[in-house]
Every structure is written in structure tokens, then in C-alpha cells.
Give the backbone structure.
Amino acid sequence: MKKIIICIFLLLQITIVHATNYQIPHADLSLYCDHDMEEVGYQELMPIQEYVFQNGTKINASPENAQTIIMINGLYQPDIQTINHNNILLVPAKTICETLGFQLNWVEESNNVIIKNNNHTITLKVKDHVAIVNNEKHTLQSAPILMNNTIYVPLRFICETMGLKVKYYTRTEIDLFTWNPVVTIDQEFNASYISEKEAYESLKRNLTYGYDHFEDNYKTLHQPEKHLLTSALEILRKDIENLRLVQTISRYYVFEGLRYTIYVDKYTGTIYFNVIGISFSQVKKADFNDPRLFEYSYMVD
């Protein structure tokens, strides 16, 4: 009997772990950006940046072309086109429902849009400011619209009604993009994650390891003047001591103190550096044995 109970307990543990891991979606903050100048008139240049996302999607961004970037559960969704309608963000109903796993029905005769998940049914109508949620009426700040055969619905209302967390970041609140605001959408997962303190301690250990090995690793690429390397290492050491958590964006703890921002995925512990060069910027997974780990921030002005 005791052996049977132990076996059942182990099976339950395996099932719980499997379910937990299954629930956490893949996320990757990696991003590459080229900085360039576009000629817009006689001796007049406009800064423009091309962002390249993990799925290969490219966005040309400038002060005149600053579309909102959607991030769902820590993963960019650059293919979701947004419309700012009366200061309310609208998104294509079909795209957002497919991405979030909601059921979508379009009743063409009545112009009704019906969106369902396990707990809620939302009924919307094009150009109508009233939404029905589980038979209760709600007033919308912006009605759904039909544009180019695509129905756009209010993003925040849909997501928050379905139990998701939505947060809007202006371009000055987040340093991932120069001009583009970011909207994060996050589900709650029944899964363990590292605390802010654990993330800080892990990051500090890794940075210290990278610092301790940087001189020898960097010399495999270059032979810098000793006083320059010594000065850079001293600045780096002090910056590591000043490491601090400043905010949480989606599933990422955001740390500052060094010459670039660092992101730590609270579910996987993956560390990302936001490296800024002369003609590019890049958010990439940190390799603490990489000879170029601190090069662009401390060895190249």
C-alpha cells in the first residue's frame, strides 16, 4: 500500500511539473536595430531605424512612423497592426484572438463580433459603443470599426475582460525602442519563478564572473593599452556594485547601473543585454564567456 501511495504521489508530481512547464509560453527578448539617416529634402536628414524581430519581421521606425509594438507573454508580436482611434488602441479581432487562443465568430448580417474563452463571452457590434459580456452591458470608450475588410476591436477592453494584464509604456518609459510605444499583455501562469532578490543575486554573480574573465578573454581579440583596460575594468567594477532593479516589464526584471539596461526573464533566468553601438543597438542573450561581453559599453566610446 505504501509503495502504491508513493507511486501515485510521484505521478502527480510529474503531471504537475509537466502541466506547469506546458503553460509557460516561449519568450525571447532578442532584437536587432540598424540606425540610419534618410534624406527627406535638400541637406535635410531624418533618423530612421530598422528593427528586426525574432520571427524575421522588419519595421522601419522614425518619428513619423512610430507604430505601437505588442508584446504578449514576453514575446514580441510585431505583425499585429494597431490603430489609435480617439486615443484608444484598436487591433484586428482575428489576429488578436488567434494569438491569444480565443474563439472568434463574425455574424455578417448583424455586424456582430463574438469572442469567447472558457469564462467569458463578449459580443461587440461595429460602430456600437455597447458591449455585452456574459449578458451584462458595458460601455466602450471606442466602438469596433471595419476598415479594409478587417474588424478592429479595443485591445485593453478585450484583454482585461478575459482576465489578462495589460500595460502601456510610452517611448520614454522603456528603452527598447526610440520612438515606438509598447503594450504588454500577460496571462497568469501557475508556475514558479525567481524572485527579484534571486534575479539580482544571479545577475550579480554572472556579472562578477564576466568581469573576472573579461581581461583575458578580451586579449584574445585585441591588445589594448594597459592603462585603458585598467581604467575600463575599474569603471565596470564600480558599475556592477551600483546594479539595481528599476522595474518589471512583462516577465522581465529590468536592471540598471551599468552603461546599458539588463533584462532577466523571471521564469527561465535568461539574461539579456541591451547593447548600443555607434550605428546599431541590439538586445541579445548574455554570454559571460564572450570576449566582447563589455566591449561596446566600456572599450569603445
Notes: The chain has two domains: 68-186, 196-299. Residues 102 and 251 are 22 Å apart (CA to CA). Helices lie at 2-23, 93-100, 155-161, 196-218, 226-241, 295-299. The two ends are 70 Å apart (CA to CA).
